[in-house]
Amino acid sequence: MTTMKAGLALLTCPLAALTASALKGTADVANLPSFAAGAWKSDGSELYFYGNRLNARGGKFYVNEDGNPYCPDGVASLDCSQFNGRETNLVVGGDTGTASLDVTVPGGQQVYLAPDGSLSFTQAHSAYIPEGSTISGFYLDTIDGEGPSPFLFNDDRTWYLCPVGDGSLPQIPYQVVASEEPLEECVRVEIKTYTPEGGPVWQFN
């Protein structure tokens, strides 16, 4: 069966290149298609991942760790009962070359690669991103190919899951990292995209 593969290329650029118009693009996600993402590894090794979902928590992305959606109580004109979603969904910002969490909080929450390669997101109401981060060059590129779902690609780096907790493999928590070099003690994976699930989210903490 032929499907369409979606590629996400991550290109490094200076922090100064993040303009006001790009920031505006990350906040305006209402009219952009969103997607969920999951990690896959089924190449015969002892570790297997079958679409384990990427979840946003504490400014980073994890597998086998719950996301941390949040809506502040006591804010005038904000009805948190309308923001009961718990799933992590993403959007790619079209011509801006940026990516964001699919959230409602004013200003949005931008997705980027930190200097250590960890897939990260900004805190609500803050545009702070560490110097040396990858902040633009995100895009969705459809390519004819075989597979059950679109792939999330990175032109220059490979996706890895790096263990960050204790427990039995592969159920322990893993942090999502992109690297140009092989990472010891981390698991190389593919990231596939899926139809988004869940209700609207105000923000992630």
Structure description:
This protein has 205 residues and is mainly beta. The chain has one helix and 16 strands. The protein has one helix at 20-27, and strands at 2-8, 34-41, 49-57, 60-63, 69-70, 90-92, 99-101, 110-113, 119-121, 140-146, 151-152, 158-163, 174-179, 187-188, 190-194, 203-204. The strands form three sheets. Strands 2, 3, 4, 6, 7, 8, 9, 11, 12, 13, 14 and 15 form a twelve-stranded antiparallel sheet that branches. A two-stranded antiparallel sheet has the order 1-10. β3 and β4 (60-63) form a beta hairpin. It starts with a strand and ends with a strand.
Name the helicity range: under 10%
Distance between the termini: 39 Å
Rg (CA only) = 17 Å
Average pLDDT rating: 79
Number of helices: 1
Tell me the β content: 35-45%
Give a nutshell description of this structure.
The chain has 205 residues and is mainly beta. It contains 1 helix and 16 strands.
What descriptive keywords fit this protein?
205 residues, globular, 16 strands, mainly beta, disordered N terminus, single chain, two-stranded antiparallel sheet, twelve-stranded antiparallel β-sheet
Secondary structure elements and pairings:
Blueprint: E1 2-8, H1 20-27, E2 34-41, E3 49-57, E4 60-63, E5 69-70, E6 90-92, E7 99-101, E8 110-113, E9 119-121, E10 140-146, E11 151-152, E12 158-163, E13 174-179, E14 187-188, E15 190-194, E16 203-204
Antiparallel strand pairs: 1-10, 2-3, 2-6, 2-15, 3-4, 4-13, 5-16, 6-7, 7-8, 8-9, 11-15, 12-13, 12-14
